Amino acid sequence: MTPVKLKVYISHTADDKKSVKELYDFLRPMHDEVDIWYNDPPPAPKPLPVPWEWLSAFLPIFLPRDYRNDYAKVDQLRKERAHIYLFMTSYKSLNDSRIQNDIRFVAERRIEGDDLSPQLFPVILAPSLWKEKSALSRYKTLGPKKTLIEIKPIEEGYYEVATQLSKVIKDVQRGLDEAKFAESRLVAPDASSTAPSRKAQPYLGGDDAAFEFKAPAQVNPPEWLGWMIWFFIFISVFRGLSGDRPKATLGRYESAEPAQSWQPEFPREQPLRPVEGDIRFPQPE
Questions:
Q1: What mean pLDDT is reported for the chain?
Q2: What is the pTM of this model?
Q3: Which stretches of the chain are DSSP H helices?
């Protein structure tokens, strides 16, 4: 049986993204054992050069694709399947409605007393009123007792977070592997039996490829090529509207004018004599 690869999701506000990326890099040695995610959407597509922007008004195929909506779907799927949630807590995150929605979403997934329920841990990044004004106050924190910004160097705080997270991962991993083994041995229950009590339904693997996302790099066409296309379009339209057509040229013999005077016949040494009944030709004067 293949062990379940744990999923860790770090929820944060945009203003704390720098600290999240530092923590993510510090946890990189753990990536072989667990998948660690955080909201990191691709940037908006860069605007096209002016000539290509004009062309895209007629041919939308030139418009670069915006992958942010595709990433949002993958990000939502990651939230739904994560086993451990870390909430980077600061006064900025308390004012972020998206973070508050994430807290409610995870709280709805949790079932008290069930070890297979998602684990939720606040990571205190900066001083705030999170104990008084946040739903995170009833959950155990992960990391040092002080806030991360108060620890110098901050790497010591990241190390404390990584050490405690490693212990949580081992405990959750054991329970998930047992659940996956029990699921493989599960026999369909009798229809007459009583309905089982509500239990957590953790993600036990099977479609890990659905969590992968990599937006291709945007390649803008060269600006000079766009101007060249517009130049040829302008010339073609101008010639079509002007209606100019090349004049037909006459050939060498078609352009010859008929003779205005009689040209005498070339004198012959033995001229042909007309026979009787032939048409008489005019004689030169």
A1: 80
A2: 0.72
A3: 17-26, 50-56, 68-81, 97-109, 130-133, 154-184, 223-242
